[in-house]
Every structure is written in C-alpha cells, then in structure tokens.
Amino acid sequence: MNYSLLAFAVTAACTSAHVDANTSEFIDSASTEVITVIGSSLNNNVKEIEREGVTAATNINADFGDQLAQLPGVSISRNGPVTGLIQYRGLFGDRVGVSIDGVDIAGAGPNSMDSPLSHILPEPGLTATLYRGIVPVSAGVQTLGGKLRISANAASLFALDNGITGSVNTSLINPGSGQQYQGNVLYKTDQAFISGAFMHQQRDERESGDNAVIPNSHYQRNGGKFRLGYEWGKHQFDASYQQLNTNESGTPALAMDIGFIDAAWYRVGYRYNAGEAEYFAINWFGNSNQHAMDNFSQRMVMSESMARENNADAIAQGLDAKYVTPLNSGELELGAYLHHSRNNSVITNPNNGMFFVDNFTNAERDTASVYAQWTINKDAYSSTLGTRYTRVSMDAGEAGSNMVMMNPAIATLVNSFNAAERGKNYSMLDIAATTRYRASDSLDTVLGISQKNRAPTYFERYTWLPLGISGGMADGFNYIGNLELENETARKIEVGIDYNYESWTISPRFFYQDIEDYITGSPSTNMAANMVSNMMAGTEPFQWTNTDAVIKGADMTIQGQLTDSLSVRAVATVQHGNRDDIDDALFRISPEHLTTTVQWNTLVFDAPLQMQLTSELAGAQNHTSALQNEASTAGYGLFHISGLLTLFDNAQSNLQVTATIHNLLDKQYAPHTAGINRVMNAGVEVGERVPGAGREWHLSLSYRF
After folding, report:
1. Inter-axis angle of helices 527-537 and 408-419, nearest 10
2. Residue 656 needs a FRET pair 20 to 30 A away by CA distance; which of 314, 456, 478, 570 works?
3. Could you report how far apart the first and last alpha carbons of the chain are, in Å?
4. What CA dihedral angle connects 136, 142, 146 and 148, to 10 degrees?
5. DSSP 683
6. Which is it for the CA torsion 324, 325, 326, 327, positive or negative?
7. What phi and psi, each to the nearest 5 degrees, are found at residue 212?
C-alpha cells in the first residue's frame, strides 16, 4: 500500500502520536530543542520542561525503542527484540550518540547486539531527552547523527520530600507469554538519598499478522541499579552502579544470536554550586561488557564444522567536566572530556578445539575533547553558539588464526595486517550555531547550522578477515576494514518555525546535510579477502571506504486541543539519502511516516480514565540501495488503542491499570528498517524481511507509594 505525503497531511488533520510515546517538547536552553520521551522529572520546580508520565508500564518492546520511534525524525533499525538501533534523520548506529545516566557505553558486540538502548533500566525520575535538529556541542562528542540522553537528574532527586517512596509494576504481554516486573524504592533525608531498582523481562516468540512465528524473537533479561547522593552546603555528590544481564535472546537479522551479555556500568559525580547560575560539575564513569554469541544454540547450523561462537568483551573509562557561568544576558559553558575504550573478540568452534580467529585484539580508542559554548537570551531572539575540538587516537594488536597454515589467502591477510601501521590519530573541529527569532507572540523562526565529525569505529578499521561485521547494518554482506579511513565531516543546515494559535502548535523543520568522507561499504579490490569471502560465503566482500553522501528531508509536529477533554498530536517525517560517488541510495533509510494520536480524558465513577487511539502510517520505500541488494517495501497502516485507569491517586500513593491493544486490526506488515531474516527452517524465509508483530495485548498494573 502506498501512502502519499498528501494523505499524510490529511490524516494529520484528523488524528495524532503513538499510544506508547506520550511525548512532549521543551526548551532546554532558549534556542536548543529537546524532547522528553520516557519518564518524568520528579521536581515540579524545574523550569522550561514539560513532564510526561511514560514508564515501564507502557513499553511493548523490551528496550523502549517503540516509544522513541514516535519522535519526529526517529525510527528504530531492529535486528532483534533487544537490539534496537536509533535512526535519526537517516543516520543510525554509532553516528547517533546515546548516553545512559551520563555514561557513554562502549559495546562489546561489533554488530551492536548490546546496543545502547539495551542498557535502559527504569528508575525514579528517568527521562530520555532527544535533541531535535542541530545538536549543541555541549551535548557530547561525535554527535554527527544526533544525541539521546537517558538519565534521572540528581537535582530532582535531592529536591524530593523526606521519607520512603517507590513503585512496582507488573506487565503481561501476549502472544509470546511476555512478562515484565519492575520496581524501585528511594529513601530521602534532608541531605541525602539512596535508591535501588530492579527489572525482569522475558518473552517467547512473537507472531506476525498472518499468525506466523517471528523467528528468534524471544528474550530474557534481569537487572538492578543502585544509586546514592549526598549534599552539603554548595556541594553535591552522587554515584550510580547498574548491572544488566541478558540471557538467551534472538537476533534473526544477524548471523548469530545472543548467548549472554553481562553489562555493568558506574558513574561518580560531583557538583559545586558557586552561585545561582554558576557551577562546576565533574563525572567519572566507565563500563564493562562480557558478551557471548553463537550460530548453533538457538538456530539450525548446516554442519558441525560451521558452528561458531564469538566471545567479546569491552571495557571503558571516561571523565567529563564543565564550568557554567552567567555572561552578557546568557551563559558561558566550558567543558572537557576524556574517554578510553578497549575491545577484544575471539571466534571459536565448539566442535573443533583447534579452530580460532583472533578477531580483535586490544582494539583501543582514546578520545580527548574540549569545548566552549555561549548561550544568549534576548527578548527578540535567543542563540546558542559553540565549538568543540576532539582528538581520537586508535590502535590494535595483532591478528591471528589457526587457518594461516592451511590457507594462503588467510595467511596473506594476517601478515599484511600485522605488518601495517595500525595506529592513527584524528583531529576534528565541531561547530554548531542555532538562533530562534521571535517574529511575533505566535510565531518563532528557527535557523541552525553545524559542522560535526565522526572518527571510524574499531571494526571499520580493524576487521582484517571478511566477516558479516557491519555495526548492525545487517545487509548480509561480509566486510573488511580499512586502515586508511578518514573521519566523516557532516555540514548541516536546518530551518523551521513554531506557530501557535490558541491551543494549537505546528512545528515543521527542513534539513539538508552533506557528509564528506562518509564511511560505507564498496566492493573490495583486495584479492586475498575476495578469495576468502568467496570460499566462505560465495560472495565478494565490501570494504569500508570514504565516499560522500547527502541526506535531506523534513519533519513536523502538530498538537492541540479539540475540546477540553480531547487532544491531538501528529508527528510526520520524510527523508532521502544518497551516495555522491555513485548513483545509489543509502541503505536501510526509513520511508516517510506519520504517527497520530487522539487522547480523551474522562471519568469512570470518579476514577480518571485516559484513552488513546493511534494511527501509524508508513509509506512505501522504493529508493533503495542497488549495490547492497536492498529490496523495496510496501507501505502499511496500523491502529493501536490504549486505556489508563487511575483507581486512586493521592499524595502518598496511587494505583493504575494500563491496557493496550497493539496492531488492533492484526495487520501483516514488515517495517523497512527491520532486518532481513537469517534463521533457517523458520516461519519466515531466509532473505525475507522480519515481519512486525500482529495483534498483541498488554496489561499492566502499577502501584506507587
């Protein structure tokens, strides 16, 4: 089914955003747009932030990707139920920065099985904040494709009333016997707080709209988080530790499934409040991931000799600091950032003790960065201007394999890699400027420009043997690295308006981004690599190369009140991406889509009831990559319905019941950003796109005390 932009616009006038999103926009600084997605701030005195009550009770997918996918410009590239990658305006994977409670997670899996979204564990005050459009330099390093921050603000926790607060949530999802149990408790005194949170999630295989079992859509996870804080005078200290264990979980779009992921991260923070608007903050953080994956325990393998297990690990430590002070009707922010990460990966065959591939050995990456940013707030306009300098240093140990003695082509690859200069430094300058001009009481105009950079990942440089390692792109091709890669440089311009009329707001944005030295795959000319790949997979591999690319498009939000009890929100996105070196589309770009929600607030025997009806439309995607054999996909339309009943609500406690029917009409469909199935003897053929879930119901009971 094809849906034109005209149909999108007509539907936007009648309906509005997804039942699970419940999102809102707010102004972080006067000219920087951010959007709160998950959770709510606990401090009612926080200015310029609209708070939403989206919690673990509303998520259909384990990693909260279903909620994020309803934001303008955002979709999820999903390779498995806990392996969602954020795509923002046509860029995804490592190009979109994600931090969890101020921690930049270094994943162990080179195919992003342990993607940043998989590290989310709900806790009091959790919010997810997406920067819309031009990302300020203060948001982080290498934010070429956007930035998402997921955290619970310590200032909000310090502002809570004294005593014990907490919540518990139980959720059931079918088909698939999905279960989720989540709870947290927080104890607050005059100067300190201590909190703990836990989560358990499990589910069997899901079903598509035609009742076919979606291959390897099962998962199981457990996690816990501990946090404490103490303040005295002008000083604040807080620390966090989280452990999240993922057990057997499927990734049908990849060559292997998750055996386990043991992921831990920590952060220690200090803040000195020198004045009402002047402060210094510093954070020390790190993470450690242990990850095993294989192609035989959760799917069929052709023969014992083809069984493979990959054991990978990653460790990282980092430090960031910033100083903020008032300056000329605004504020000046100065900051610094240091980060070190190391990755290892060894591939073995459990049926052959002699077989091994030293895939990555001590692949190291060191980042050092400093920035300055000035925010100006005037009656007629507001602006944010910033620049950041970043230096990235990379290196890796030697490669090795038992196959060197029996395969001359592999011996050539090993020897060439080990003899090469593997260390390299990248120096990058980011610049970002945004201005919001108040043309009238009802109209603001927005203009932004930026230059952002990204250094190659370790797998883009150091994959010496042609393997299906693509950072989650999952196109089915083998890839080899390139030690000569340059960093990407993206130059972007954005224009838009915010128009308010009575209770209605419309916020369209138009963007154009030119990416110099865009890193993507091109057919390999390495004879040894081609020989090995043809022997293993029957196809020649791609090699990561620098090309150029252009991405352009628009996104828009519309929201308002139809009546006192009836509200509407609509989010529309369209984007178009092309390579410049050849006439070809960028791979796995989300088609145009529109998500609209109508919300009705009423009472049932004095109990507040909130009903939401959602329309989700996606256009056909025919602009596909011929080079990567990407198939076109048809458009589709879905409906979802949800009800939230608050049985009682007072200052001490409340009890809420949430019921959701997702894909109400049991539509058979496959999102273009879904992966391609690689599981044999399944209800979906190998090479077919993994379908979306059919009709599912979700029942949740939440109690706050």
Report:
1. 130
2. 570
3. 48
4. -90
5. S
6. negative
7. -80, 145
